[in-house]
Amino acid sequence: MQTPLTTLLFLLPLLSNALPAQDSNPNPQSETRITPKQIEAIAPKSKSCDSAPSKDECATAAQAAPAISASFDKYKVHSRAEQAAVIGLMAFESKEFQYNRNHSPGVPGQGTRNMQSPSYNKKYAASLPDIADAASQASDADKVLDLLVDNAEYDFGSGAWFLTTQCEKGVRQQLQSGSEEGWEAYLRDCVDTEANGERRAYWKKAVDALGK
Hints:
Radius of gyration: 22 Å
Largest sheet: none
Organism: Aspergillus taichungensis
Region (Disordered): 19-53
Mean pLDDT: 88
Keywords: Signal
Protein name: Lysozyme-like domain-containing protein
Number of strands: 0
Signal peptide: 1-18
């Protein structure tokens, strides 16, 4: 007759096999954190705001990195290819995070780090419970933008919000491939802008900084 200890030792392998498999990556967000060093590699001017032309709008890499990371968590953007495209776009549009408002040609209400148009800022603000009511009652587009840029989470969250709510599934699938064609489709078919050389340079730096 087996002793209780012998029986337990015999059953342990069986019990182990019966347990549900453990996810080797139960928290995928933890692997998508963006660091200040990565932001600096993409946008070297973000190392400091000491020489920024608009200090009240400027954000350093140390400020941008956690806010961008939080936005990717919030909107579930865990593809490195998508992250690189969004950060590259924001770095270009904000002049390396020195601005969050459009000063030239100066479209009223255009801004956030994604430099969104007023119509998209209105949609974006409406999606944010904390400011939705205030945004709906705002007297003009600049007032809506004020509500967004006064909060770092909302200011830096525009890129991830736009990607996940305004881009079609097919565009995101192409972008997730990591190919240059996918990136071009994202700019052309969703952002509605040209994939020019300067934008490509920021995208490539973002791809290199974030890795695969």
